[in-house]
C-alpha cells in the first residue's frame, strides 16, 4: 500500500470523534439517519488508522444493536424506532450502515437476526421490475443505492436460493441494466442521467450478484471499456460525477471505485493522475474544524459525507480499500471469515431442522 | 418546501405520490422549471420531470424544451440526457431520427468541440459502434487533420478518431489504421490530454500489441 497524507491528521481525527458525540444544528435534518452518520465517522477514523481512538466501542455496539428490528433490519435512529408502529420502519441504508459500523468496531455480527434480515431485504424488492425500496413504507423512490445495500447484505449473510433465488437475482440485475444511461454510466432510475456514484452502485451490485467479469457477466468487454472511459473522463483536477460539473471530493470514492470495478486488473493510478486528486482533496481540507469540504470554497464547511468519501477515495487510489465492500483491505479477511461462519452455522441449523 | 430542500429525496417522492393520487401532473413541468432557474442540473428535478412526462404522456414539447436549454448552455448534460430520453420514449430511434440527431449533434460540435456531452450523445446515437457509419467517421478524420495542420486539436475529437481507427483495426485487421490510432493515443498522452496520460499510454500499448 502506498501512503497518502493530506495533512492535519489529528484535526480530522478530532472532527470524526466530535461527529460521534454530537452533530451541529445544521445537521438536524439528518437525525433520522444517525447510523449512516456514525458509519461515516467510524469509517473516517478507520481510514486514518485511528479507530482505537473510540474508547467506548462496546457502548456503540450496544447502541447499534438496540436499533435492530426483531423482524429484520435496522432503524436509522432511536427516534425512527420509537415512532408509532405503523410508521416505524427499518431502512436498508441504515442496515448497511449498521453492519459497516459493527465490522469497524470489531464486532463478529453474532447478534444479527440473519434469517429475518434476509427475508426483510427480499420483501423490499419490487417483483415487477427488480428494484429495491429503502423501507417498507414506500416513502422514497426506488433507487440503485438501495440495490447496492441489498446486494451487499445478501452476499455477506449468504442468502440461499429460498431467500434470494436465481430468478430474484436475474430480476435485480435486469433492473440495474435498465438504469444504464446512453453514455454507458448508470443513473438512479431508468432514464435518469448517469453519474459516478450510481455507476459504482450498479457495478458493485453486479459484482456481489456474480454478474460482473464472470461466466454470467452481463456487461460486454466493449461496454466495460466505455464505462472505464466515462470514469476516466471524470477527472479535471479532482474528480466529479457528471460531465461538465465541478469537482467534488465525495466522487473521489464513487467514480474511482466504479473505475476499479470496471477494470480490476489495472491500477487506478495507471488511469488517473493521483497526485492531482490528492492535491485537490488537500485544497478542500477544512482548516478550522478538520474534515473535508465538498469543494474548495470559503463559504463551505466540512461535512461527514465528503470527509468520509474523500478519504475512502484516496484509500482506494492508494490501493488500500476494496471498492465493493467500501472497507480497508485489513477488514476483508475478517469479513470473509464472518461470511463463512454465518454460512456454516445456518447450514448446521437447517440440517438440525 | 421543495424550493428550500431541492436535494431532499423524500420530498420529491412525496410530490410524485400526490400527483398519482390526484391523477394530475399538469403543473409539474412548470414547477421543475422554477427549480431549473436556481439549478439547471438539479438531479431530482430532472428525474421528477421525466417521471411526470412518462407517467402522464406529456412528451409534447419536451424535445424542443431540451433543445432550447442546449441553446442556453450546450454543456448541460442533464438536457442532453433528457433529449435522448424523450426521443427514446416518444418517436423512437428510426433511421430518419438517427440521421437528424447526427446532424444536430454535429452542429453543436461546431459550436463547442470540447463538449463531452455532445461527443457522448454522438456515440449513443451511433450505438457506440463508430465503424457503423464510415462516412461520418471519415468526416471527423479529415476535420482532425485540418485542425492538426493549424497546430491545434482537441482531446475529444482526437479520442473519437483514435477509437474509430482502433475499432477498424480490430474489425478489418487494418494495420495502417492501427498505427494511426496509436499515434493519436500517443499525442493525447503527451500533448492533448496529459491529465489522462497514463490511460492513453495504456490504450496505446494495448493496441500496439495487437497490430
Automatic annotation (TrEMBL), chain A:
Residues 8-319 form the Prenyltransferase alpha-alpha toroid domain. It comes from the Eukaryota. One of its GO terms (molecular function) is metal ion binding. InterPro entries: PGGT1B-like (IPR045089), Prenyltrans (IPR001330), Terpenoid_cyclase/PrenylTrfase (IPR008930). GO terms for cellular component: CAAX-protein geranylgeranyltransferase complex. Belongs to the protein prenyltransferase subunit beta family. This is Prenyltransferase alpha-alpha toroid domain-containing protein. It comes from Oikopleura dioica (Tunicate).
TrEMBL record, chain B:
Its EC number is 2.5.1.58, 2.5.1.59. The keyword Magnesium applies. InterPro entries: Prenyl_trans_a (IPR002088). It holds the Pfam family PPTA. It is an enzyme of class 2 (transferase). The keyword Transferase applies. Keywords: Magnesium, Prenyltransferase, Repeat, Transferase. Its cofactor is Mg(2+). Belongs to the protein prenyltransferase subunit alpha family. This is Protein farnesyltransferase/geranylgeranyltransferase type-1 subunit alpha. It comes from Oikopleura dioica (Tunicate). The lineage of its organism: Eukaryota, Metazoa, Chordata, Tunicata, Appendicularia.
